[in-house]
Amino acid sequence: MAHSVEIDSKEAWGGGRSPFNLSYGKIFMWFFLVSDALTFGGLLISYGFIRHKYSEVWPKAENVFTHFPFVEQHIPLAYVGLMTFILIMSSVTMVLAVEAGHRMDKKGVIVWMFWTIVGGAAFVGSQAWEWYHFIVGTDEGALRSVWDQSVNNGAGAYVKQIWHGANMTVNEYGVPQFANYFFFITGFHGTHVFSGVVLNLIIFLNVIKGTYERRGHYEMVEKVGLYWHFVDLVWVFVFTFFYLL
Amino acid sequence: MSEFHDNYPQYEVMANHGEEEGKKNRRTLWNVFWVMLAITIFELVVGFLAPGKGWSGTLWLKTLFITLTLAKAAAIVLWFMHLKHEVKFFKWAILSPYIVFMFYTIFIVLTEGTYAGSSGKFTRVDPIFIEQQAKLKSGHHGAAAHTDDAAHTDAPADHH
Fold first, then answer.
1. What is the CATH number of the domain that holds A130?
2. What is the pTM of this model?
3. In chain B, which residues have their Cβ closer than 8 Å to the Cβ of A196?
4. Range(s) of the domain holding residue B42
5. Would you say the ipTM is above 0.90?
6. Which of A27, A117, A153, B153 has the fewest CB atoms found within 10 Å of its own CB?
């Protein structure tokens, strides 16, 4: 918690100390997260405009994302809900790891960070599974006009055919932009999750080695925890804008 | 290993606390988690029921989802990321760009966003969608609109 310390103004403005009672590293991580959030914000706003433009023909997410592993029936949004739960849980385990670090409880940090990494890896794996099913598509498919270069003596033309799955130019669910935004936004977010898992793993190994015990504080766990919470935060927004609205 | 040190005592160590305070913190954190879980389940249930009850696309539904999302985001930032307990100036240094950004975005979308849906002129778009849109605009909802979409358009009714 913030310790309120009495400092006279000459010392406060005298230089040679990090502001806000925070170390430089933590302040940097916060400002990096602000900039990254603006990047995601830009993507989501552009998604909003395009979705509004095509609002009559934009597919309903609860009709597209109905698959659940090992289950035959179509359960709308169930797997995405599970993914959200896993990611929020991993955020909880991360904050518990940070709290354990504040008590210099090395074993606690190890246990909670382990579960955070497991949760993150499960999320990335689930996202990959979702992409697989999105790309492969359903048996029914949909009628689409697909560009065929071999028609018209090589001049090419649009040919109506039943299309299955999705790629960057045509998908069975709706307008091409639906798939484009799905891949880009969830992919960009997934990259952040993956890099977060890698960073968590590195810090986890450092905790086991005892680097932070020697240092006297577990602030590195806190900094990497901030990044992890940011990743969770972005998912909360992506989940709402892409799947619910 | 040499680290950069201020003249001032290290903030990192100042943040450490004992078991007593740790227990209180943990209880608060778990409470925040339960609240977020409740909100998410509520959102999913509403999202699940929406098509069947004709709530889809309504303004109040969208406002509800966005408000709940902002509530969850606030919970994560303030408690999990600890921003609530930081020095006030720092908290506002991080939050005010967002608050300004949000209001500005809403303003711009409302005033300048009309071009996105007005003419409905699609360029180089699958003619199937233009047909669909024309049919919808002329009021032919129902069968015509659904034949070309993914076959699961009527999933809740068909498969349950």
1. 1.20.120.80
2. 0.82
3. none
4. 1-85
5. no
6. A153
